[in-house]
Amino acid sequence: MRHAILLALNYEPGAGDLPAAGSYYDTGGILMDYLQHPFDSKRHTVFSKKGMVATSQPLAAQAGIEVMQNGGNAIDAAIAAAAALTVVEPTSNGIGGDAFALVWVKDKLHGLNSSGPSPQNISPEAVKALGHEKMPVHGVVPITVPGAPAAWAELSRKFGKLPLAEALKPAIRYAEEGYPLTPILGKYWKLAYDKFKTSFTTEEYQAWFDTFAPDGRAPEIGEVWSSPGHASTLREIGETDARSFYEGPLAEKIANYVQKHNGFLSKEDLAAYQPEWVEPVSANYRGYDVWEIPPNGQGIVALMALNIFKNLSEPKWQSAQTYHEQIEAMKLAFTDGKEFITEPSEMPVSTEHLLSDEYAQKRAGTVGETASLPEPYELPKGGTVYLSAADEEGNMISYIQSNYMGFGSGIVVPETGIGLQNRGADFSLEAEHPNVLRGGKRTYHTIIPGFLTKDGKAVGPFGVMGGYMQPQGHFQVVTNTIDYLLNPQAALDAPRWQWIEGKTVLVEPHFPNYLAQELVRKGHQIQIETDGGAFGRGQIIWRNPETGVLSGGTESRTDGVVAVW
């Protein structure tokens, strides 16, 4: 019998009494101690009652708890952590990025799509006239309207208890006073600098070096870095509820700098922007509802893969057959997702059909005993931050924001700390492709927050950041949690795999060798990847529906922490 998740989810009928923390319980073939797990991590699941914030950076998590202790709720805490992450993890996000959120308030789940569209005056012809055969990755051309500041303001307006300016105070303090770099942050900062110093050689990139390499080098691990311009920008965003960013002095600085270097983003594009509240979409996986933001985001890929996979054989712990079927389900979902996902009004097939039993059963019927060769895609690496927060009132939030591909476009507006995203890089210049570039259009979007419910009650927020790893991470966290009853930390620590293209699958060094060999015999091309960042970075918070106790896990592949109150 499939049980529920210890200290977090409702048990299925007949599953027995909820065990005490630390006791052993049956996970369907393996005895698992809640305080231990079989993966190489020294982290343990964290428990709390009044509040919890899980992020990839300790100072950001602490910012959220600080705001909660000053009278804010989980939504205020998430805003505080998100703003702080633009300061303490600029390698993965920034003020000039996009954001999405799933918010549980008063027994209802709300979805926020705060991804910005392309400039109105851009077109495939205009891009090609600049000498590009496909959308460039860096520079002013792929810059789209940033949605993150609007997300903070909208979340604060609709669900927050504190003024936006209050929620941004910790982030402003970190930017003004500076903070010491953590190990994984320092690693990726240096990698970016080493790459950019040879590729960012023209004038429009100089502000990136002025901001992020002020001493002519990347700051070292443990070295204090500050950004006064970033602090001033955050203060102005807080004081104006983000309107300065879209129709005030900040908007003018952004548009003027982009257009000075022959980009397309204008003041009119910024002034017209509003985030969109959307109805989340879901798939029922073995009794639990898994929720995602609908397209233009790629969260539907995780749901499609779960639907396909549940039509295959019963999952077994550490089984090569189960891994094979998981990988094949993800391949099919991704192949179709990359083919169809764009603005909903321009998708050639409906979201409802892609999540239907008919679609899942037909795709499951194509899974054989050996690795398939679907239409291949070049899947770039991502640059994203994910966080989750919960409070004692029952509010919970799954939040994600990103500049994309690390530092985004590489364009920083001088003396503001605003690093602009490069989301336009995912547009196609092919006229017949659903995701073809068009003015005022939102592109296929990689960043996705997740949320889990059961029988209409919140279980909690979860997410795994990292470009095209994200739906694959969501899929693996959900199956680890529901199929194998892994606690939050164990579900995150479990060895991950990532399908890249064709038959190529990356696995972590601690992925069991005997399973890798069996997958090779099934035709998969298994490659060991030593960079843990390739497999995404996640956070989980579950709530015990009877006691209200929160249990959280954070990513062992980065500098993450679960802060509690």
TrEMBL record:
<dbReference type="GO" id="GO:0016787">
    <property type="term" value="F:hydrolase activity"/>
</dbReference>
<protein>
    <submittedName>
        <fullName>Gamma-glutamyltranspeptidase/glutathione hydrolase</fullName>
    </submittedName>
</protein>
<dbReference type="Pfam" id="PF01019">
    <property type="entry name" value="G_glu_transpept"/>
</dbReference>
<dbReference type="InterPro" id="IPR052896">
    <property type="entry name" value="GGT-like_enzyme"/>
</dbReference>
<dbReference type="InterPro" id="IPR043137">
    <property type="entry name" value="GGT_ssub_C"/>
</dbReference>
<dbReference type="InterPro" id="IPR029055">
    <property type="entry name" value="Ntn_hydrolases_N"/>
</dbReference>
<keyword id="KW-0378">Hydrolase</keyword>
